[in-house]
Amino acid sequence: MSLFSFRWIPLIAFIAAAGCGPLPRPFEPGSRDLANPLLQIQDSHGVVVAPIYDAPPEVATQLASLLARRLGKHEIPATATGVLNSGNLLEGWYKLENSIAGSVDVVVDWQLSDRHGQEILGRSSRIRVRIADLARNAWPIVDDLANEILPHLVTRLAGDPRPAKPLQASKAIAVGTITGAPGDGATALRRAFESVLARTGIGYSESIETALAVVDGKIEVSPVSNDTEQVKLVWTIRDSAQKEVAIFRQQNKIPKGRLSGRWGAMAFDIVLAMRGQILEAMRRLETSGNDSLQVPSNLK
User: How far apart (Å, rounded) are the C-alpha atoms in residues 215 and 246?
Assistant: First the structure.
């Protein structure tokens, strides 16, 4: 069950644990203001890349991980190790064909499906290699297969294989301090902010000094039981004058130790869950001026 509510000043989101299902979405709000077009932006361009079926181990995981990384460079949230909110699923079936004179065709039949299982892209990648190279060094094969399918995925998911042009820093939000995050949480969350916000109406800036606003995060992880922890996240957006303009709160119960190492897709889940509200807060900050966005004194 999820509980989601907010006020414009400050903007507050409470997100409780998500219900059971095939695609866990632990930080996604349970409802949206559908009258607001800024909150209707979907997360459908994210991708979960499955290990390549029937492929040798040195190909199966390398190819999935490489595609996830390269999709990320095109600002498409992707993971080969977890789940994404409303994410699409990319699957590939590996096979060898036409073995002649010491060479063979390496073929991967790709299928990209949406969260409902409907196919949105089907394509085969085919490269000719020497049979001896299959056992000697898998990396060139992995690289060639990724290069063949990548532009088709990017075009289908984002509409343009070129990375989006960054917005001016003065129109963007920067990430300030992220405290209390175990594992690689601080790094993973920064990467998620950059990837998720890059294609929105408000961009991501690496410059705190010139950005329109800065978001700071505080993470607390506390034990609930022998095998469960609770993570609480508080995000504060401040304008260039360091005045608070919005606050977001998220929480969920997670398996013990889940955040001690790599956060992976969970970092994207966290940012995706509050993306619409960040957009609205930034839009109001840009158009309304600082005075109308100050936090009332009784809420400080």
Answer: 9
CA dihedral angle for residue 177, residue 179, residue 184, residue 187, rounded to 10 degrees = -10
Angle, helices 265-288 vs 185-197, to 10°: value is 50
H helix or E strand, kind and range, residue 149: helix 139-158
Q: Residue 14, exposed/middle/buried by CB under 10 A (0-12, 13-18, 19+)?
A: middle
The residue written with tokens 């294609």 in the block is 199
Instruction: Classify domain 37-41+165-299 at the CATH class level.
Output: alpha beta
Question: In the structure encoding, which two tokens stand for residue 198, read together?
Answer: 């890059």
Cα distances (angstroms) measured from residue 218 to each of 268, 269, 287? 16, 16, 28
What pLDDT does residue 159 have?
Answer: 58
Q: Whole-number mean pLDDT of the chain?
A: 74
Structure tokens at 180: 């209390």
Evaluate if pTM is beyond 0.90. no
What local confidence, expressed as pLDDT, does residue 113 receive? 86
Q: At residue 70, does pLDDT exceed 80?
A: yes
CATH classification (class only), 47-158: alpha beta
Using the predicted structure, report yes or no on whether residue 56 has a pLDDT greater than 80: yes
- The strand pair at 47-49 and 78-79 is best described as parallel
| H or E stretch at 130 | strand 119-130
pLDDT beyond 50 at 166: no
Contact 30, 4 (CB under 8 A): yes
- Alpha-carbon gap, residue 168 to 185, rounded angstroms: 27
Residue 117 makes CB contacts below 8 A (sequence gap 6+) with none
Tell the residue number behind the tokens 């490269």, with chain if given: 127
Per-residue pLDDT tens digits for 241-266: 888 888 888 988 889 998 898 887 77
